[in-house]
From TrEMBL:
Keywords associated with the record: Glycosyltransferase, Transferase
Entry-linked Pfam families: Glycos_transf_1 (PF00534)
MF terms (GO), sorted A to Z: glycosyltransferase activity
Protein name (database record): Glycosyl transferase family 1 domain-containing protein
UniProt keyword Isomerase present: no
Database matches in SUPFAM superfamilies: UDP-Glycosyltransferase/glycogen phosphorylase
InterPro entries (UniProt xref): Glyco_trans_1 (IPR001296), Glycosyltransferase_grp1 (IPR050194)
Gene: LOC100807850
Glycosyl transferase family domain segment(s): 273-425
Length: 478
């Protein structure tokens, strides 16, 4: 049997593309990734015919099994997909180009296990999962979401929502619920850089061991950025060819320059709309390095700053900025949030631990240039060839470097508008539907292939024993 090596290219290209069936989207474009990040390629791929018959969706409640059309399970915080394929072994191993597979057009039955809740938790990942659910529903899939019950509405774009504290108390890591299913597993991982901040130092190594156990048991791992993929590779969490990037996306209609509002600018600048206005949107947590903004504002006496969002660090920040021209709006949503983004002059992101940075995408989509730390997943949004064109990156913690890029934007309206327009044009390329379609069709098909391969390897010793004790009868044709 021909050996097939299937690996990834971190340039967000589809995971399984053979030379014979390479769509335009499979072309490699790795210039935006650091040279230290390894590149992977596909060799010897052969097409595979996927047939899903008798699939099932299993839940832990009373070991109930639901039979129906093609289904899979997703879990988040760490997001996982799972689906049972009862088709016989023996099909050709190889690549599935999801967009060309006719089965992808069929409706699927999907369960999302999410902790914390994407409807109540203050975090950038909230928009990712809400848009993911919305796009799945628009594709005709039946979606059920199981999450913590606080702030959970009855339904969301027609998806059924279930709040269950007991479920999440019994299984603190939702991945375990999927491990009990006989189906492929795709966890989403994004928290490696927060581990040292939220645990005792002596717990870091045991936590990495748990992470390795979970992801090695999975068939594929999704990550939000090349930086996080690099962390997993450095820690040898899982095989390099089982890591896939979840494409970035932004709602370019919701976050649009048209929402610029004089009334909102008055509110954000404390009735001083003519002063330069810095905006920061996001969760107010200690891990976001927001104390850097205090040092920044000490050097910019004419500027004003507005914090949009809430979090455990807010009270301390308000004390830190007491007597300074700073406004804390708390949580904003809907059109108010769109107006807040579009009504500022510059968006500053000091966080050095962002897994991707959706607020940066939303600010740029709103036509606002960004000055952000060159760390985490931010360089995936503002690659080297776009630095200085759509936005600026500065060396993490370097106040002078940040000021050298921020001051010209605050005081030069023409530069600010030119860069904001370029940022907007760049963000129009990213669409939530395309990102969702890639996971639903391509990434999951890749997981099916790995799952089949693993299942065949596990069954091989039993098949040999069966062949030894129950040999096939010899047929004499004389």
């Amino acid at each position: 049997m021909k050996t097939t090596a299937i690996t990834i290219n971190p340039s967000l290209s589809p995971p399984f593309c053979s030379k014979a069936t390479t769509p335009p989207s499979c072309s490699s474009s790795s210039s935006s990734f650091p040279p230290s990040f390894p590149r992977f390629h596909l060799s010897g791929a052969k097409p595979i015919s996927l047939s899903c018959r008798g699939t099932r969706l299993c839940f832990l409640k009373g070991s109930k099994t639901l039979w129906g059309r093609k289904s899979f399970v997703l879990g988040a915080g760490n997001m996982t997909m799972a689906e049972v394929d009862s088709h016989e072994e023996g099909e050709n191993e190889g690549a599935l180009v999801g967009s060309e597979n006719e089965n992808n057009s069929r409706p699927r039955r999907i369960a999302l296990f999410v902790e914390p809740s994407p409807f109540a938790y203050v975090s950038g990942y909230k928009n990712r999962f809400q848009n993911f659910i919305r796009c799945l529903r628009e594709m005709g899939d039946e979606v059920m979401v199981v999450t913590t019950h606080e702030g959970v509405p009855q339904e969301f774009y027609g998806a059924k929502l279930i709040g269950s504290w007991r479920f999440l108390e019994l299984l603190s890591l939702q991945n375990f619920c999927v491990f009990l299913l006989s189906c492929p597993i795709i966890p989403m991982y994004q928290f490696s850089r927060y581990i040292p901040r939220y645990t005792f130092s002596w717990l870091v190594k045991p936590m990495w061991l748990i992470i390795k156990f979970l992801h090695r048991a999975a068939d594929l791992t999704l990550v939000p950025s090349a930086a996080i993929a690099g962390d997993l590779l450095a820690a040898r969490v899982t095989a390099a060819n089982k890591i896939r990037l979840w494409n970035k996306g932004v709602d370019s209609e919701k976050f649009h320059p048209k929402y610029r509002s004089h009334e909102m600018r008055l509110r954000l600048s404390n009735d001083e709309p003519d002063k330069p206005l810095i905006i920061h949107v996001g969760r107010l947590g200690v891990e976001k390095s927001l104390d850097f903004l205090k040092r920044l504002m000490d050097r910019l006496p004419d500027a004003r700053i507005a914090f949009v969002g809430d979090g455990p660090y807010r009270e301390e920040l308000e004390k830190m900025f007491e007597g300074m021209p700073a406004v804390f709006t708390g949580m904003l949503g809907g059109e108010e949030l769109s107006q807040a983004y579009a009504s500022g002059d510059v968006f500053v992101m000091p966080s050095e631990s962002e897994t991707l940075g959706f607020v940066v995408l939303e600010a740029m989509s709103s036509g606002i240039p960004v000055v952000a730390a060159r760390a985490g997943g931010i360089p995936d949004i503002i690659p080297a060839d776009q630095d200085g064109k759509t936005s600026y990156l500065y060396d993490p913690g370097d106040l002078e470097d940040c000021l050298s890029k921020l001051r010209p934007l605050l005081h030069n309206k023409e530069l600010r508008e030119t860069m904001g327009k370029a940022a907007r044009e760049e963000m129009e390329k990213y669409d939530w539907k395309a990102a969702t379609r890639k996971i639903r069709n391509e990434q999951y098909n890749a997981a099916i292939w790995f799952w089949r391969k693993k299942r065949a390897q596990l069954l091989r010793p039993f098949q040999r024993l069966a062949k030894h004790f129950f040999p096939s009868p010899q047929v004499n044709y004389r």
